[in-house]
Amino acid sequence: MGRSGNLPYLIRNKWLYIFLIPGILYLLVFKYLPMAGLVIAFKDLSLTKGIVDSEWVGWYHFETLFQSSNFYRILKNSLLLSFYQIVWGFPAPIILALTLNEIRHMFFKRITQTILYLPHFISWVVLAGIVMSFLSPSTGIVNHVLNTMGFESVPFLLKPEYFRTIIVSAEIWKEVGWGTIIYFAAMSGIDPTLYESATIDGAGRMRKMWHITLPGISATIVILLLLKLGNILENGFEQIYLLYNPMTYATGDVFETYTYRIGLQQGRISYGTAVGMFKALVGFTLIIMANSVSRKLSGKSIW
Amino acid sequence: MNTKTRFSWFDGINYLLVIIVCAATLYPFLNVLAVSLSSYSAYVENPLRIWPKDMNLAAYKEIMIHPVLWSSYRNSIIVTACGVAGGMLLYILSAYPLSKRHLKGRKIIMVFIVFTMLFNGGIIPNFYLMRSLGLIDTLAAIVLPMMFSGFNLILMKTFMENIPEELEEAAKMDGASEPYILFRIIVPLSKPIIATLCLFTAVTYWNNFFQAIIYIRSVDNWPLMLFLKEIISSASLAAMSSGGNSAEQGIMDVRPETLQYATLMVVMLPILCIYPFVQKYFVKGIMLGSVKG
Known about the structure:
The complex is a heterodimer. Chain A is an all-alpha fold. The two termini of chain A are 29 Å apart. Chain B has a single domain, classed as Orthogonal Bundle (MetI-like fold), CATH 1.10.3720.10. Chains A and B meet through helix 1, helix 2, helix 6, helix 7 and helix 8 of A and helix 1, helix 4, helix 5, helix 6 and helix 10 of B.
C-alpha cells in the first residue's frame, strides 16, 4: 500500500487508534516522564528551584557513587542475594512441578495446587510479620525449638550472617508453588505419544520424567533462567525493607533500599537518582543481552 | 489402566514430598490462626500450636475497636477498586487494537510499551513526578503508578489474538461500530483473562506497601498495609523488651504479639475468602495468555 492508502486506512480504523490514546497517554505521563526526570542525576536539584533552574553538575554524582564504599557494599549484597535466590529458588519450582506432574490422583492434585498457589497472594507485610514473630528471640517458634533442644536463643534478624538465608527462604516459601504454573503450561504442550512409545519400550516413570518431561520443559527453563540473570540487580524492595535494620545493613542493603534511604529519607535527591539510574541502565543492558542469548539458543524472544 | 492400581516406591516418594511441601505451606496460616484465638500465656507456653488454647476473641475485639483499622480498611478498598476499574479499562481499550495484526504502527507501539517494561525512571523521578502533580499524601499516588503494566497488557492482547475473527466480521456486516464490537462481543468473550487480571491487579493493590510507604504521610490516608506494619513494629518492640517471662499475665490479657496475629488474620481475610473461588480462573487465564500466538 502506498502513501495514498494511509488516510482512508486511518479513517476506516479511527476507533482502533482512539482506543489506544488513553494507554499511550498513561505511559507517556507515568513511565516516560520519570525517565526524562533522570536528568535530575546530572543536576544539583534544589526543590525550591525545580528541575529546569537547578544547576548542571555533569557526572559529579556518578563519580561520588563509584568512589563511595557503600556502592561496592550494595553491589556485592545485591549480586550475592540474587545468586542465592537463583541457586536455591530457581530449581525449587522445577522439582516441585516434576513431582506434582507425576501425581495421578486428580482430586489430591487439585487440592495441593490450591494450597501451593496461596502464599503468592499474601502480602510481604503479612509475611514479614510472620517471619518476625517466628524468629523472635523471646517468643518465636524457632527459638522455642532451639531452647527445648538445649540451645541459647539467637536474635536471627539482628545477625547479618542470617539475613540472606531468611530472605531467600521466605521468597521460596512464597513463590515456589506459583512458579510451577509456567512449567505445567510447558508440560501440557508435550506430545503424549512420546510417553506411550516410551512405555512400550519398557521405560520406567523415572526414565520418562528424565528423558521426556525434563527435555520438554527445557526451553522454558532456559528462558526463565536468562530472565532471572537479566534481572540480577532486582532484589525486591518490600521484603528487604521490611526485614532489614541497621544491624543487618552489612548484608541486607541493596540498590532499592539504598536509593530509598539516601534519596527520600536523607533528601540527597540527585545522588539517589544517580544510584537508581545506574541500576536501571545496567539492568537494561543485562536484559537485552539475555534476550539476544535466548534468541540464539531457542529462537524465542523473552517478551 | 493397570498403572492406576500399582503404587510403587516412586509414588511413595512423590506423595511424601508433595505432602511435606503442602504442610510447610499451610503451617504458618494455621499457626497464625491458632495463636490469634489463644491467650497470650498459651502462646508463650507453646508458640508452635496449630490448635487454639483458652480460645477467645479478645485480640480480635481489641483490634476491631482500633480506629485506624477501619479507616485503613476503607482506604485499601478505595485504592483496590479504583486501581482495578481504571486498569481494566486501559487494558481492554489498548489490548483490542493491538490484537489486530493489520494495525498500522502496531510494531512501533509495541516497542513503546515493551521499553517501559525494561527501563524505568526509578524511585526518585517517580516521586518527583507525584510531587509535581500535587499527589503526595493522596490515595491517587498509590493508584496511578501501577495501574497499567506492559506484562498484563501483553497477556490480554495474546488472549484477544486467539478470538476467531469471523465473529467480528459477522457483526461488521450487520453494521456494528467498533466500540459495539469491543464491548458487546470481545469483552464477554475475554471473561477468563479479564477475571484473571482483575484478581492479579486487585491483589497487587491490596498487598502494596511500596507506593504507600513512599507517598503516604498522614495516618488518615494509610492503607491497610501501613497499619499492619505499625502493629508489627510495636509487637516486635514489645517482644524485645519483654524477654519472654511474662506468662503470668491474666488469661484474657491481649499483648502486642497476639494482637499482631489477629491483625494478620484480619488483613488476610478478604484474600483467603475470595481465593478458592477465583483459583480455577487464573490458572486457565495464565495458560491461555502465555501461549504465544
